[in-house]
From TrEMBL:
Cofactor: [4Fe-4S] cluster
Protein keywords: 4Fe-4S, Cytoplasm, Iron, Iron-sulfur, Metal-binding, Methyltransferase, rRNA processing, S-adenosyl-L-methionine, Transferase
Stated name of the protein: Radical SAM core domain-containing protein
InterPro entries: Aldolase_TIM, Methyltransferase_A, RNA_MTrfase_RlmN, rRNA_lsu_MTrfase_RlmN/Cfr, rSAM, rSAM_sf
Location within or outside the cell: Cytoplasm
Annotated transmembrane regions: none
Location, primary (coarse class): cytoplasm
Domain of life of the native organism: Eukaryota
Length: 371
C-alpha cells in the first residue's frame, strides 16, 4: 500500500474511482493531527467509496520513526526513519533563536524557530569525498510521500517553520518526487512558505534549467565548495559531469529569470580550498551574482577522511576577502548537533540493525538571509 502523501498517486486513484480530489487535503490534515494513527477510518466526512479506497490502497504513513536522538544542548533532534523497503534515512530538526544573531549591528527580531533538514534519497551517487553520505553509495530514491512524511514525523517534536533539502541524497537527482513533495509542503495543510524552503544541489545543470519554472520562489543553494573546476573535481568527483563554466551560466540564467538570491555553500578544507587566493577566485566567480556565501567548517567523518578542518583564522580571513573586497554577504555556518553526528556532512545510515551513525547538513537560518 502507498502513502496518502504520494500526491500524484492518490489523485489518480481518486480520479479513477470518481471521487473528488478536494477531499485529499482533509485526509492529510487528519494524519498530520494524528501522526500515530494506524488507519484512515477516522477522517471526517468522506464517502463510503473513499473509505474503501483508502483501506485497500493507502496507509497514513508508510515510514516509521525508529529512533530520535537529542543533542546535549537540546537545539538539535535527529530522527531515524525506516522506509517501507527496509532502508533508513535521517531527518534533523534544528532549533535556532534568531535573537542571538546580529544584522547591521542590531539584534535580529524574532524568536525560536525550527528548521527541518530532510533527505531525498537513501545514499547518494555524487560521492563527494568530504561527505559521509557519499561513502555509502546510492541505494534508492524516496517517493514524494516519503519526503513529506519526514515533516509529519518531525511535527511530533517541533513546529517546523523552515525546510532544507540538505539531508541524504542529491535532491535534483530525484526531481519529480522533489517537485511533487514541495508542492504538497507549500499547500494546505502544511502551508510552509515557499520562501522558507531551500533545495541544495551539487549543480545538476539540466534540473537547474527547469527549477524556476517548476518551483517558483523556492530558494536554491549550490554546493560549490571550490572556486575552480580542478579543485572541484578533486573533492567532488561528480563535478566532472557539470563543468564549472556551464554551471555558472545555468545559475546566471536561473537568477535572471527568478530574481532570487542564490546561496553558495562552501566547505572549508585546510590547505585545499581555504587560502586567500581561493577567496579571490571565488569572489571573481560570483561578482555578477546576487549571492550569499555560507562557509562551512568541515566535520571530520571518521578516520577514513583525509581532510582537515580549516583554522578559525583561515575562515575569518576568507570571509574578510569576500566581504571586504567583493562585497559578498558571507556567513559562517553555526554547527549544531555534532555530538549526535547531526552536523554538516555527517549523515550516513550504515547498517539497518545499528543505531544510526549519521546526521545531516544544516543551514540553520539560511531562509532568513533575505537581501
Amino acid at each position: 500500500r502507498r502513502s496518502v502523501f504520494d500526491a500524484a498517486y492518490i489523485r489518480a486513484e481518486f480520479d479513477a474511482a470518481g471521487i473528488s480530489p478536494t477531499f485529499i487535503p482533509t485526509i492529510w490534515k487528519y494524519v498530520l493531527q494524528n501522526p500515530r494513527c494506524s488507519d484512515l477510518d477516522g477522517v471526517p466526512s468522506l464517502s463510503a467509496a473513499a473509505y474503501a479506497l483508502l483501506r485497500n490502497k493507502f496507509r497514513p504513513t508508510t515510514s516509521t520513526l525508529t529512533a530520535a536522538a537529542e543533542s546535549k544542548d537540546r537545539t538539535t533532534t535527529k530522527l531515524l526513519i525506516r522506509l517501507q523497503n527496509g532502508e533508513s534515512v535521517e531527518a534533523v530538526i534544528m532549533r535556532y533563536d534568531s535573537r542571538l544573531g546580529k544584522y547591521d549591528g542590531k539584534t535580529r527580531p524574532g524568536g525560536v524557530r525550527s528548521t527541518l533538514c530532510v533527505s531525498s534519497q537513501v545514499g547518494c551517487k555524487m560521492g563527494c569525498r568530504f561527505c559521509a553520505t557519499g561513502t555509502m553509495g546510492f541505494k534508492s530514491n524516496l517517493s514524494s510521500g516519503e519526503i513529506v512524511e519526514q515533516l509529519v514525523h518531525a511535527t511530533r517534536y517541533s513546529q517546523i517553520r523552515n525546510i532544507v533539502f540538505m539531508g541524504m541524497g542529491e535532491p535534483l537527482n530525484n526531481y519529480t518526487a522533489l517537485v511533487e513533495a514541495i508542492q504538497v509542503l507549500t499547500g494546505f495543510p502544511f502551508q510552509i512558505s515557499p520562501k522558507r524552503v531551500t533545495v541544495s544541489t551539487v549543480g545538476i545543470i539540466h534540473s537547474i534549467n527547469k527549477f524556476n519554472n517548476d518551483l517558483p520562489n523556492i530558494n536554491l543553494a549550490v554546493s560549490l565548495h571550490a572556486p575552480d573546476q580542478d579543485i572541484r573535481c578533486h573533492i567532488m568527483p561528480a563535478a566532472r559531469a557539470f563543468p564549472l563554466a556551464k554551471l555558472m551560466n545555468a545559475l546566471q540564467s536561473y537568477q535572471n529569470a527568478s530574481k532570487q538570491t542564490i546561496f553558495i555553500e562552501y566547505i572549508m578544507l585546510d590547505g585545499v580550498n581555504d587560502q586567500e587566493e581561493h577567496a579571490h577566485k571565488l569572489g571573481k566567480l560570483l561578482e555578477n551574482f546576487k549571492a550569499v556565501v555560507n562557509l562551512i567548517p568541515f566535520n571530520p567523518i571518521g578516520s577514513a577522511s583525509t581532510f582537515k578542518t580549516s583554522s578559525d583564522q583561515s575562515i575569518k580571513k576568507f570571509q574578510k576577502v569576500l566581504r571586504g573586497i567583493y562585497s559578498i554577504r558571507t556567513t559562517v555556518r553555526q554547527e549544531m548537533g555534532q555530538d549526535i553526528a547531526g552536523a554538516c556532512g555527517q549523515l550516513v545510515v550504515s547498517l539497518p540493525d545499528e543505531r544510526s551513525a549519521g546526521g545531516a547538513t544544516l543551514l540553520s537560518d539560511i531562509e532568513d538571509l533575505r537581501i
